[in-house]
Amino acid sequence: MKIVGLQKVTLIDYPGHIAASVFLGGCNLDCGFCHNRWMIREEAVAAALSVEELLAWLETRVGRLGGVCLSGGEPTLHAEVVDLARRIKGLGYELKLDTNGLLPGRLAALLSAGLLDYVAVDLKAPLNPVSYERITRRKVDLAALRLSMNLLREGDVAYEFRTTVCPGLAEADLRAIARELLPGERWYLQPFVPAETVDPAVRGERALTEEELSHLATELGAALRSAA
User: Fold this and answer.
1) Please, is 24 exposed, middle or buried when counting C-beta atoms within 10 Å of its C-beta (0-12, 13-18, 19+)?
2) Who contacts 57 (Cβ-Cβ below 8 Å, separation ≥6)?
3) pLDDT confidence tier of residue 2, bands split at 50, 70 and 90
4) CA distances from 146 to 49, 102, 143 (A)
5) How many helices (H) and strands (E) would you count in the chain?
6) Mind listing the pLDDT tens digit for each residue in 76-129?
7) Closest by Cα among 62, 132, 61 to 102
């Protein structure tokens, strides 16, 4: 497990908290729209700091920061993430996990040990194999993703779902994702940002505009609330 990045202060990554974000290298997906594509292959990137260096730094920020986000990459790829989470929690921090939900066993281990306070699960596309493979460029086990969703629904840890509305996702796709959600569940739609770090082949493609997305988010949000 490599810690390949540390954002020392974030006001947006952990709802209601001033937090730090820790990025673990390696991912089991290959999404063209991802801003962190440079860390997909863990073996190709250098560690930014060691676990001990991270924990020593976090210890100096106790009382200043309220939370820590474990992000990536995909943090649950690493068995060591459980011990890292335990040590961060031992310093008194609230802990958030960002995950694609495709490794429910590791998520279950973190939840059952009481190590998570908030979980954000990325729903990349409609939950069918063709759509998911098209967006993530990998074959995925959607039963595993559904299991992760159910683990959160049956537990008592706060969670959210989120979708980056990247090129290739149309209004019909977002409506299909919405049908997977339960009334009242948090679901955030993130506009695609064609940053320099995304796949150049994706950067120039059209995605739904913020105006189109705003109208659709209002419609889908109303539908979810009315079903509650």
Assistant:
1) buried
2) 6, 49
3) very high
4) 34, 9, 5
5) 8, 7
6) 999 999 999 999 999 999 999 999 999 999 999 999 999 999 999 999 999 999
7) 132
Edge-to-edge strand ranges of the sheet holding 187-191: 3-10, 19-24, 67-72, 94-99, 118-122, 158-165, 187-191
Q: What fold does the segment set 3-226 form as a domain?
A: TIM Barrel (3.20.20)
Q: Where are the domains of the chain?
A: 3-226
Beta strands 118-122 and 3-10, pairing class: unpaired
CB 121 within 8 A of CB 111: no
What would the two tokens of residue 174 be? Answer: 């977002």
Instruction: Give the angle 158-21-14 at the CA atoms, nearest 5°.
Output: 30
Residue 222 pLDDT level (bands cut at 50, 70, 90): confident
Give the pLDDT confidence score for residue 87 in this predicted structure: 98
Distance between CA atoms of 144 and 105, rounded to whole angstroms? 9
Per-residue pLDDT of 7-28, as tens digits, reads 999 999 999 999 999 999 999 9
Q: What is the three-class DSSP state of 120?
A: strand
For the beta carbon of residue 4, count every other beta carbon within 10 angstroms: 21
